[in-house]
Amino acid sequence: MSAQTHTYAADDPETALKYAIQHIRGDDRVQIVEGVIEHMSPMWDHENAADLIREQIGPSLRKLGCRAGSGNLDLPGSPNWYVPDLAVVPADLAKGGGALLPDQTLLVVEVTSDSNGDTDRIVKRRRYAEFGAPLYLLVDRQEHACTLFSRPGQLGYTHTDGPLPFGTPVRLPEPFDLDLDTSEF
User: Which residues have C-beta within 8 Å of that of residue 166, sequence separation ≥ 6?
Assistant: First the structure.
């Protein structure tokens, strides 16, 4: 068996760091948030919220020709490489095998944890807007509320729907055009 050689620009710290986390052996999932490597190990209640959303948007995904998952999102030119709890992307982009960009998504969902709630509430919200994710749904388990951010720009999202207490439907606009039931979050 011959060893595979991988090339990257060792003199470019962003590229080297992103290369390194993509080549971690084993099943560990990691992301980079503002240059800090974070290990991902969500609890079952965290996964439950993401799965409930996936189930509800499933019929829309088929109509739109999209896929939902937690694949890598690269934020080029920044020290960020995110693994969202859920992202909706066109099916043809889901076949590429590499990271996608936030502006290639239709929806990004982050579910907060005790350990990283502020990262999802503040840092990722700002970065997803900056990199053009059209819709960002924050499921804040500590605050027991959901907030949908839309109309991204360089200074953040210009439209916010929420925070809406769990149990209040969250309206996902076009192309989804559905009310998300949050009562089981």
Answer: 144, 145, 146, 182, 183, 185
Taking the C-alpha atoms of residue 156 and residue 105, their distance in angstroms, rounded to an integer, is: 17
Distance in angstroms (rounded) separating the CA atoms of residues 135 and 128: 9
Contact 119, 80 (CB under 8 A): no
Report the alpha-carbon distance of residue 120 to residue 47 in Å, rounded: 15
The two counts, helices (H) then strands (E), for the chain are 4, 12
Taking the domains of the chain in order of start, what are their residue ranges? 42-180
* Burial letters 5-44, b for 16+ CB under 10 A, else e: eeeeeeeeebeebbeebeeeeeeeeebbbeeeebeeebee
Query: What are the residue ranges of helices labelled H in the chain?
Result: 13-22, 44-64, 117-118, 125-130
Q: Which CATH architecture has domain 42-180?
A: Alpha-Beta Complex (3.90)
- Segment 61-116, tens digit of pLDDT: 999 999 999 989 999 999 898 999 999 999 999 987 789 999 999 999 999 988 88
